[in-house]
Amino acid sequence: MGEGSNNTLQAVMFDYLQSQKSGTVAESENAMGLLLRWFGEDRDITALSPVEIEEYCSSINDNNVDSSASMKSLKKFFSTLYKNETIALDLSRYIKIRKRKTAITSSGQSHEEQFDMLTQEGWNKLEEEVEDLKLRREDISEDIRKAAATGDFSENAPLDAAREAQGKNEGRIREIEETLKKSRVMDSKSIKRRGKSAAFVGSTIVLKNRTTNKQNSYMLVESSESNPKEGKLSIQSPIGRAVYGMSAGSEVEIQLPNGEANLFYLSSIK
Hints:
The chain is an alpha/beta fold. The protein contains 8 helices and 9 strands. It folds into 3 domains: 9-103, DNA polymerase, domain 1, CATH 1.10.150; 120-184, Transcription elongation factor, GreA/GreB, N-terminal domain (Helix Hairpins, Orthogonal Bundle), CATH 1.10.287.180; 188-269, Chitinase A, domain 3. It has a 5-stranded mixed beta sheet with strand order 7-6-5-9-8. It has a two-stranded antiparallel sheet with strand order 1-2. The longest helix has 29 residues, at 120-148.
């Protein structure tokens, strides 16, 4: 860009998106949005370094965002900027697209496996719960045997209750085992590498409601680990979706359960 040109990340992204074909804009916007939240709208794009790009890509991959599509869009973005001499260094070379494990379905078709990220504490709790549920199997089976021993199967409330308990117990076991199967533990190294730059799974955030001036701390987790009473919010919740990928110092409008939209300030990320 020549002298006097606007090199801010927001301005350059806007020009780039305007030049894209309509069919690819939506996908590019998602990738651009995360990048914009991470580095900030006013960041001089010509000052971005390879190390910063590598750290950003590592964090996106670690947090299981749709990284493959996002990284491909960013690779194209930076490659285009380099070709038209907006940036002096080809930053697309430093964008790594993580390959995911390919699974084969019963029909013989392949698909990429996507994993949820759990904290170590969340993983341990699920493992403990499923072990407790398996230990309950014998007790429930004994309850069924005792209730069935009466010989009355027409109106046997204890038998019905025991069978219902068995169904719920087995259902929960299957649910937890499926969750563990499709999840991975977020290691402490990836959290430290990401630092306090943006809010992702495993981040502890402090939000201040600009309307009420109340301040609360939350840990962002996958939905399977969500527990509002313990301050663990799902990234699929209204708050989680609103702050995901945002940096400290950002403001975001969030619609509350009562239907009101309040402005929140993301004061810190740990």
